[in-house]
Amino acid sequence: xxxxxxxxxxxxxxxxxxxxxxxxxxxxxxxxxxxxxxxxxxxxxxxxxxxxxxxxxxxxxxxxxxxxxxxxxxxxxxxxxxxxxxxxxxxxxxxxxxxxxxxxxxxxxxxxxxxxxxxxxxxxxxxxxxxxxxxxxxxxxxxxxxxxxxxxxxxxxxxxxxxxxxxxxxxxxxxxxxxxxxxxxxxxxxxxxxxxxxxxxxxxxxxxxxxxxxxxxxxxxxxxxxxxxxxxxxxxxxxxxxxxxxxxxxxxxxxxxxxxxxxxxxxxxxxxxxxxxxxxxxxxxxxxxxxxxxxxxxxxxxxxxxxxxxxxxxxxxxxxxxxxxxxxxxxxxxxxxxxxxxxxxxxxxxxxxxxxxxxxxxx
Length: 363
Ligand SMILES: [Zn+2]
Description:
Shape: flat
Number of strands: 15
Bound molecules: zinc ion
CATH topology of the largest domain: Rossmann fold
């Protein structure tokens, strides 16, 4: 049965900004108390109580919920589908608390990229405490992965209340210099820099890899008090550094880079159908070679695979996870071992497969 009546009561609250409410079945009728001072509370006639009880009974199989018991159900709002938790707070009074749970945020955050906790802590600390100016470079072979990480940086800077100017469209909450980069593509370096100087935001971020824009921004980062965050298409953090150097030959560059964050994307093994992997003798040999080449631990005996299940639609993986390496000449405490090391840790935990580890190792 559809929860028409209960949905209406909740949606009326949401419309007024209240995402939780009490419902009480009293002798006077059905009292609805929204948790938002400005929302209108309701006192509905007795027949409303009957409607409520009928719909509630269709959710539970019992006639009455024990005090403290709760159930959840889905609610269609004009915007999306939400989960509602209903708790019986006083069984004998027929009083219920209904809470609408926010849908899980889909925004990329530094904490959901799959970053090792040390890297995560260092980067967050760096953004928070340094008088951050100069350059941060996000390096990857994959454009979507770079944008994910750029969005995560925006999210982190927003939390710190730092104003951001974007070149190109990245996130709806920041100010764009040129949303589609149409006229900026051919802009002269000096014109771009004088344009940036007119803006007061402390951070300039871009997903553009346009040669003109990148060159101008690197130069700008050398002589301004702003933090510039850009991305570059490269194979490793050292490769990214060489590419930055090729674009602008300046001795000050290494001291101007806060850090280069290089990342590589892997298929995330489905945890619901995960099992120990059996390798052929040929594979075992390759895995041993990989282990000794990079001085890693035992790979072949700590190897996992997923066989496919209904949770992963029989794909055997569940989205992607990133592995990282950080290179910094200016802040040595930010440096990490090579990306293989980070990927190996993930492989050993059953997050990625040994074959995918081999794929990026180039041996
Ligand atoms: Zn699965």
